[in-house]
Amino acid sequence: HRDLHSFPTRRSSDLKYLQVEASDRKGLSTALTIAYNACPARKKLVFLSGHGWGWKGLFRTDGTAAKYLKERRVTLPLPIGDCISRLNAANFKSKERIDQTVENAKPAKADVLALDACSMGCIEVVATLLDEARILLVSETEFPGAGYPYGEIAQSICARPALTPLELATAMMQSTKSKYKGYPQPKEPITQIAIDCAQFPNFAETFVKAVQSLDLQDAAVFNAVRAALEGAWRSESTDYCDLKGFLLHLVSGSLPTEGRSE
Fold first, then answer.
1. CA of 160: how far to CAs of 18, 165, 168, in Å?
2. Which residues fall within 8 angstroms of residue 192, CB to CB, at 6 or more apart?
3. Per-range mean pLDDT, top range of 3-7, 11-15, 19-23, 53-57
4. What residues contact residue 139 under an 8 Å CB cut-off, 6+ apart?
5. Which of 146, 214, 241, 251 is 20–30 Å from 67 (CA)?
6. How many CB atoms are closer than 10 A to CB 167?
């Protein structure tokens, strides 16, 4: 999703507008690399916050800066032609600095990458972000605008700095559960899933092999698949189906012995 983003330059009266790919993985990787280079640490907990549409887009924005320009809520300090020339020159220099930073940076990944956004717990998003973290923390459903309990999470890290990535993600899920326990009941449950990125390829391979081994021309297999789909949890808002639940229902249900062993 293309969007214009603004941030102040040396003079507070200037606004720099850059066109970026908000949903592009390369752009995200570049941003994280720059952040790790600027803030080196032995352990890294990263939050990404915004609107999520699952496989349709990672943190899509709504053209805010372009909208503000159109509505004249933001005005440029010079005639538009002069601004474009200055911005093109500044953008070229910025790109040179970014490329140099990325080229010289050491490979790094987050210990925990938490997506403070809706519907990001889908297989397409997880597969895209595998190389960015050890543990991914995502939601299969709508995630409240209030987000994570950041204060409690920070206190937990300070109190127990030796937490492993999985232990930290588990503590974050518990804190999130406690935070929303007293909130009005949403249409769907608030979900949080901690995914071990190193184990995910095994799950994906198992899932693909299981699906490829199914003979849907066989009435017994077809009925077993239908029962598993009906038994697995499904989001009412997105119609996403829980794949792990689907597989568990499939192997524990009426699937013929041959298919179950596969």
1. 40, 12, 9
2. 137, 138, 139, 172, 173, 176, 177
3. 53-57
4. 115, 117, 118, 119, 120, 121, 190, 191, 192, 193
5. 146
6. 15
Quick one: angle between helices 219-231 and 243-252, nearest 10?
130
The first and second tokens of residue 121, run together, are 């717990």
Q: Alpha-carbon distance 69 to 90, whole Å?
A: 20
Chain centre to alpha carbon of residue 243: 18
Q: For residue 60, which phi and psi values (nearest 5 degrees)?
A: -65, 140
Q: Lowest-pLDDT range, 19-28, 167-176, 214-223? A: 19-28
Residues 202, 188: Cα–Cα separation, whole Å = 29
Q: What is the 3-state secondary structure (H, E, C) of 185-235?
A: CCCCCCCCEEEECCCHHHHHHHHHHHHHCCCCCCHHHHHHHHHHHHHCCEC
How far is residue 43's CA from residue 63's CA, in Å, rounded to a whole number? 34
Identity of the residue numbered 258: E
Q: Is 1 helix (H, G, I), strand (E, B) or coil?
A: coil
pLDDT, tens digit, for every residue of 232-242?
A: 888 877 788 88
Largest CA distance in the chain: 74
Query: What beta strand segments (E) does the chain contain?
Result: 2-8, 15-21, 45-49, 110-116, 133-138, 193-196
- Give dist(CA 93, CA 237) in Å, integer: 44
